[in-house]
Amino acid sequence: MSANVTSTSPSDWKYVSEGGSSIVFSYVGAPSPDFDGTALRLRKVAHYPISPETIVSEDIEEQEDPTILFQCQVIQRLIPSEYLPRLESVDVEGPWLEELARLAEEHRPLERRAKDKIDVRRRKAVLANDLVGGSGWAVEIKPKWGFLPNPTHLSPSTKVTKSQTCRFCMHSHLKTTEGEDASLGYCPLDLYSGEEKRVRKALDVLWDAWVGSSGGVNNFKIFVEGHMLRPTTFPSSLGPIAHQVFSANAAEPSLDTLRDQVISPLLPLLLETPVLRILSTHQRNLDALDIEGLSSLWSETHKPAGSLEAAPVPPLGKGLSQPTIEELENFVDVYLEKHASMDHNHPDTADLRYYCIAYLLSATFKDCSIILRLHPAVGNTPARSSITVIDLDVKSIDRLPTWEKLDQKVVKAYAGVSQPTRCYDRWAPARL
Ligand SMILES: [Zn+2]
Predict the structure, then answer these.
(1) What's the CA-to-centroid distance between 160 and ligand 1, angstroms?
(2) How far is the CA of 189 from the centre of ligand 1 (A)?
(3) Would the keyword Signal be found if you checked this record's keyword annotation (predicted)?
(4) How far apart are CA 413 and CA 409, in angstroms?
(5) Which residues contact 388 (CB under 8 A, 6 or more apart)?
């Protein structure tokens, strides 16, 4: 039984932010067990649809949101639900949405107002935990790839490089040479290591990259009472977080002191949680062949039988259909039951689609974020903290060839580095 959001007043919902296709509100009404600490995500619609067909084909009596289905039927079997946001499909009604839209309009940025509005024809919306709003502060970390690849399927030209430097460190190098912001020096294998010294180092480097890029890197973000901070090298730009971690009348701290004070409460949280281990284990298992091994298996499967001439093999992933939710559910059955006993050093061509879907899911885990939430002590309630994994969306299988090309580019750019970073994978399985 889902909560009846239309039993609340539209004025109980405060505008938070919006993206290209959705808009988010947080609950600020009277105390309610159903809605305290929740956020409501609604779909938007353009004022002027591009073509009349978009209106006709728009499925207004929509099914559940695909994000909810994926999380409930796939992700929740791989990550304990206590570490996932509560996502719930809720029913909404036209007049209620119209009133909410009317109240929200003045809070929306002008350029957004000119383009689109809340789609009041929708009958479903998503209710989620409000992970960054309310009192206290939160840190969002995008940890990225937490393992070194299985070396079995690596080619002679990449084996040495890929076995000593992790994918993230190589990619940061490429980004830097292309003038992009990168969290240079941050090694995910440090964050995932479970060793205090290394986790602290990872957090220090993420903080430094965050400040140094004025918040331009996407691996680290800080929210204070629902607002995302934009740091500069002046400590005053970090006033809101300083107020959270120091007493109100403390003198303005130095940047290093502030960094230590912010990182200290995050450290035990990251050392105690099983979440990072769970993420890196799924990343490693699901990417059992590396993209190079997947590509070889693809070529082997598509080689015309008995042909003497070198017939062209279609590019990796060509013609593959996007797996449905049912297929992903079946995949998880096999993954949980048989994956550990499969011989990934000698993959069977009959399992090609299995390995492609596995790679697709590994990409979800390589690209998700975690939110570390710190609630201050209030009255008799002691301070508490929580950790939640977000942005676990299913990726498009059309991206397989893009991922293969990027992998080649990343490794090639790293091949000439005179002093390669040595990344230590503490959880690497013993290989025979
Ligand atoms: Zn690394």
Answers:
(1) 14
(2) 6
(3) no
(4) 6
(5) 83, 84, 85, 129, 131, 370, 371, 373
Residue 351 Cα to ligand 1 midpoint, Å, equals 30
Q: How far is the CA of 410 from the centre of ligand 1 (A)?
A: 13
| Tens of pLDDT, residues 66-112 | 778 899 999 999 999 999 998 888 999 999 999 999 999 998 988 88
How many whole angstroms from 417 Cα to the centroid of ligand 1?
Answer: 14
- Residues 32, 29: Cα–Cα separation, whole Å: 8
CA nearest 59: which of 123, 6, 5, 116? 123
Residue 51 has pLDDT above 70, yes or no: no
- Averaged pLDDT of the chain: 90
Assigned token pair, 91: 């029913």
- What are the chain's domains? 5-111+125-130 (3.30.200.110), 133-432 (no CATH)
pLDDT at 265: 93
Distance 186 CA to ligand 1 centre (A): 7
Between the CA of 170 and the centroid of ligand 1 the distance, in Å, is: 7
Q: What is the spatial distance between Cα 207 and Cα 203, in angstroms, rounded to a whole number?
A: 6
Q: Is residue 165 helix, strand or coil?
A: coil
Average the pLDDT over 403-412 and give the result.
97
| 39 C-alpha to ligand 1 centroid (Å) | 35
Lowest mean pLDDT among 132-136, 170-174, 290-294, 409-413: 132-136
